[in-house]
Amino acid sequence: MPGGTANGAQPATRDPTTGFHLRSSGQRLLARLFAVADQAQASLCAMWLDLDRFRQVNDSFGFAEADAVIARIAGRIRSVAGDRATLLRMGSDEFALLLPVVETPDAERIAGRLLAVVDQPILLGGILFRPSVSIGLTWRHAADDPLSLLARADRAMGEAKRQGGNRFFVVAAEPPGATSAAWSARRDLEIESVLQASLATGDLELHYQPIIRPDGSIEAVEALMRCTVGGQQVSPLQLVAVAEKTGLIVRLGEWILLQGARCAARLRAQGCPTKIAINISRLQLCSASFLSVLHAALICARLPPDAIELELTESLFVDASPVVQANLRGAHEVGVGLAIDDFGTGYSSLANLKDLPATKLKFDRAFINELPDDRRAFAILSAITRLAGELGMVVVAEGVETAAQLAACEAARVDATQGFLHAKPMCEEELSHWMETRKAR
Amino acid sequence: MDGNEEGPLMDTRLVGPERVETALEANLRAIDIPPRPLIIDRIREEMMQDNPCLRRVGQLINADVGLAAGLIRTASSPSFGLRARVRSVADALMLLGLEVTSRAVAAISLRRAFPNSGHYARFWDASARIAALSGWLAQELDLPGVHAADAYTFGLFRDCGIVILLRRLPSYLQTLARANDDAERSFTAVERAEHPTDHAVVGALMAVDWWLPDEVGEAIRHHHDPAALTPVESDLPTLSRRLIAVSQTAEYLLQQLRGESRTQEWQKLGEACLLLLGIDQEDLRGMHAEATAIIEAVD
User: How far apart are CA B117 and CA A336, in angstroms?
Assistant: First the structure.
């Protein structure tokens, strides 16, 4: 059911171009979603999407072409949003997306994937047009009515636009009266100042989540950033977004590389050798000095290159920039592992797979969420696992939370799994204790 | 030279029993570059408070006699920019403020965190003289935005990557000799032709870890890079460029006056440095007498 909702929609209320619900039916649909969420005592996430610079397309090509583009983009949005989402067309180039029972990390992941799928060129009258979208993300507050929820999502979108577009911005659930224009900017400032202070006082922590092979041995541990602002955990995605915007990312990235390498070295010295996986952002990989910083961290920690693995999104692997490609090649040549992170979310291309210098492929949690019930998801998982294996890559499934998902992953013969079922991310001390305990077993 | 020659500053008993390290942890540190001394974290924590308590910081510093003496000596040195005489840690804190005190503590900790024997001692002596001359030059030239404490700290930290690479890479000593003699390629280009990284990058990494100001870290990263010094090509902050110019000039003075720290850097960077500082060779010659006194004060 394209753009549909599990709650049964009236075909007459659909927009013919996108197949999404019409704005006029928004209030009724939301009231129903609110009631379902109340019954299940579940959260409700709202996103407001507004295409960037879309007037140019209208002005230059006319409405027929513009409609064709809107239809393409709507299809992309639908492919990411999935069946549980309710999709509405709110204006000529504006959409709303409502997702029940979605927590912060997943919602931000979905927003990130929406950005990625929209940001793909479309051939338009012989010209390659590159669309992008600004997304506002928020959650339902107990005091919200449908309009106040959408208004907050719209406000968050405005902030994303103000920051240059092609990004998402999160506004936490707040009572409808609490709106403040300066709020979002303040939140960013708050994160920035906490980030600065955290780098200074060591409050910024790396946590580590193990990746486990079917025989129980440890494939690697992934280093994840932890930072608290105003008593709330800031998601790594948001942290990286602020750090990139303020230029702190260079220092933060170097700090993470050094701390991660040090942790791996200490674990080795304790007799628990393990590979450490570190997330690398685009800005870091675009730096001509990336390789010498990477080597400096390895040398400082006395760590061999194959003890470290860099996790990168697929779009970075296929980035055309010569600096990025040289950095990837250079890391690969000395034996540093390269993992394709969040595989299966963007425009994953099988044709690309054979050419990438990747040593590992990490299936996104969104994929694993569908297991074990979704036979198609399982078929893709096992086929890609076999293919990647033949290309010499290790396959990891992320976000494994239930025994049934683990069983499905193992049936698909993935090489290792990661998720709450095995262990939550832990601080170094807890990780070291956890490893010792496993060794003793 | 196995990394356990750290002074009492690294003794974490001074900063509360919850952070006391076990012997095992101390041994593990031997595999690492010197971690930031915890006392710097405590000073930073205090700085984050609405009403920082200088007395509490003073107590922490006083608990480490070596550090306290080092701070009084550093703060009293003409290179650090204070005109007043400092008699106690409390004086130093009052006159320097927490920000500069944390810089001074980092500078004192640096040498104590590294081995101090053999050819390392000569290296540190030269660094100490370059640091002192840099702090003095910054005041003498009255460069806008360049605090003597920053120039001093930069002079001291600038080459700490060399010590780390000497301990890590067996052939680095030969590389160092070649880099010192090369009049064509940049110092770091010689290093990178033989190793996967260079001392400027390692030093910048340590600056991040030790919470030195960004401009100091960036100056460390680029201090052998001629393009970084020219205003048109460089997007380095002005402060970073001036710090580099001050320390390269300080090193040149040391070479002229003592014949120490022989490198080809002045041939490659000297002109850009003088331009940045707004002085010429004649001005430099006029500084010889005072510079000699500064060097002697360090000895």
Answer: 35
- Whether the CB of A334 is below 8 Å from some CB of chain B: the reply is yes
For chain A, the average pLDDT equals 83
- pLDDT digit string (tens) for A116-153? 888 887 877 666 677 889 999 998 888 888 878 888 89
For residue A105, cis peptide bond before it (omega within 30 degrees of 0): no
Q: ipTM value, please give it.
A: 0.81
Q: Which residue in A248, A289, A433 has the most chain B C-beta atoms within 10 A of its own C-beta, making it the best mutation to test that interface?
A: A289
Question: Is A300 in Cβ contact with B192 (below 8 Å)?
Answer: no
CB-facing half-sphere around the CA of A189: CA atoms within 13 A = 5
Determine phi and psi for A137, rounding to 5 degrees.
Answer: -130, 130
Give A240's pLDDT tier (boundaries 50, 70, 90). confident
Q: What structural domains and CATH numbers belong to chain B? A: 1-113 (1.10.3210.10), 116-299 (1.10.3210.10)
pTM, rounded to two decimals: 0.69
- Where does residue A82 fall: left (phi above 0), alpha (psi -120 to 50 degrees), or beta otherwise? left
Does residue A228 sit in helix, strand or coil? Answer: strand
Residue A300 touches partner B, C-beta closer than 8 Å: yes
* Half-sphere exposure in the Cβ direction for A43 (13 Å, CA): 12
**Chain position carrying tokens 């060399």:** B162
Predicted confidence (pLDDT) at residue B30 exceeds the cutoff of 60: no
- From the list A258, A265, A292, which residue is nearest B197 (CB)? A292
Domain A203-440 class, CATH top level: alpha beta
Residue A261 sits at the chain B interface (C-beta within 8 Å): no
Whether B137 contacts chain A with CB within 8 A = no
In chain B, the residue whose alpha carbon lies closest to the alpha carbon of A301 is B32
Tell me the β-bridge partners of B277: none
Distance between CA atoms of B34 and A257, rounded to whole angstroms?
A: 16
- Is pLDDT at A183 greater than 60 in this prediction? no
Smallest Cβ–Cβ distance between A296 and the set B28, B36, B197 belongs to: B197
Tokens of B222: 């680029």
Q: Is the pLDDT of residue B3 over 80?
A: no
A302 touches B at CB < 8 Å: yes
Identify the closest residue of chain B to A262 by CA–CA distance: B32
Closest CA in chain A for residue B218: A251
Torsions phi, psi for A405 (to 5 deg): -65, -40
Best B171, B209, B236 member to test A by mutation, with max A CBs in 10 Å, is B209
Residue A382 corresponds to which tokens in the numbers above?
């096992």
pLDDT tier, B115 (very low <50, low <70, confident <90, very high otherwise): low
Q: Which residue has the tokens 């860099």?
A: A310
State whether residue A202 sits within 8 Å of chain B by CB. yes
DSSP letters for A82-112? -TT-EEEEEETTEEEEEEES--HHHHHHHHH
For residue B67, give the nearest of B40, B94, B33 by alpha carbon.
B40
Interchain contact B217–A (C-beta under 8 A): yes
Nearest CA in chain B to A258: B205
Whose tokens are 């980030």? That residue is A195
H or E segment to which residue A133 belongs: strand A133-139
| SS3 label, residue B13 | helix
Residue B115 and residue B5 in contact, taking contact as beta carbons nearer than 8 Å: yes
- The structure tokens listed for A291 are 């390789």
Give the mean model confidence (pLDDT) for residues B179-183.
Answer: 91
Q: Which amino acid is at A3?
A: G
Q: Would you give the DSSP letter of residue A404?
A: H
- Are A6 and A72 in contact by the 8 Å Cβ rule? The answer is no
Kindly write down the DSSP assignment for every residue of A338-352, as one continuous string.
Answer: EEEEEETSS---HHH
What SS3 state is found at B185? coil
Domain range annotation of chain A: 11-179, 203-440
Instruction: Calculate how close chain A gets to B23, using CA atoms only, in Å.
Output: 13
Tokens of B91: 């004086």
Please give the CATH superfamily to which domain A11-179 belongs.
Reverse transcriptase/Diguanylate cyclase domain (3.30.70.270)
